[in-house]
Design a protein that fits this description.
By secondary structure, this protein is α/β, with parallel strands linked by helices. The protein is about 45% helix and about 15% strand. Bound molecules: pyridoxal-5'-phosphate.
Length: about 220
């Protein structure tokens, strides 16, 4: 019998295809990041066996414990850091990850730039925007984005695009649309929007997401 995780992967692919079709987009322009945070490797390997190669983790330490062995075993894995990052973890993050989604402040840009210089490895970063201007959330305020872009460029960090986590419990579409507009306004487009999670990735794809970060819909509840 097929593994439940593999069956869920197929369902997510079908949902992405449907959303792409209605938005007249190509499925090739949407990268599915399987968010494996908190899940043990024996839940992750069936997904790799089913063909998934792009994964996301929140915590540097957890990723260090889980992924080097899997990468050695399977090769050809793309690992994304999607969670809040402390500056003192910048070097570890640059060493392990292929892409970072939560560059949200000048001090972190400087730390990441330094780490990339030291390791001679340039890791593309999404700039996280606090799109709902919520007190508790990470991300730079939309008004501060231009400054963060400038400092990221000075630090010689490749900008992958913009990332957001919209406020919980309200319609996300206006926030996704706002992020897409900020990408365009700042001349970062047309691709490079990390937005959409299990609850809202179809709408994010319709509004231009290039990277969706999906955990629960693949692995079940954490
Ligand atoms: C956990 C997490 C996700 C995945 O959330 P699900 O609702 O499980 O799909 C996506 N993005 C970030 C930043 C996360 O922390």
């Amino acid at each position: 019998m097929e593994n439940p995780v593999a069956i869920r992967l197929q369902t997510v692919h079908e949902t992405i295809a449907h959303a792409c079709k209605s938005a007249r987009r190509s499925v090739d322009d949407v990268t599915l990041i399987a968010v494996s945070k908190t899940h043990p490797t024996d839940l992750i390997t069936p997904l790799i066996d089913a063909g998934q190669r792009v994964f996301g983790e929140n915590r540097v330490q957890e990723a260090q414990e889980k992924w080097p062995e899997l990468i050695e075993q399977y090769g050809n894995i793309e690992l994304h850091a999607i969670g809040q990052l402390q500056s003192n973890k910048a070097e570890d993050a640059v060493a392990l990850f292929d892409c970072i989604h939560a560059l949200d402040r000048p001090s972190l840009a400087k730390a990441l730039g330094k780490a990339m210089d030291k390791l001679d490895k340039r890791v593309p970063c999404f700039l996280q925007v606090n799109i709902g201007a919520e007190d508790q959330k990470g991300g730079c305020m939309p008004a501060d984005l231009a400054d963060l872009i400038a400092i990221t460029r000075v630090s010689n960090i490749p900008i992958a695009g913009l990332m957001c986590l919209p406020p919980v419990g309200i319609e996300p579409a206006p926030f996704f649309a706002h992020l897409a507009k900020l990408l365009d306004d700042n001349g970062l487009g047309p691709d490079g929007l990390s937005m959409g999670m299990s609850a809202d990735y179809p709408i994010a794809v319709q509004l231009g997401a290039s990277h969706i970060r999906v955990g629960t819909a693949l692995f079940g509840e954490r």
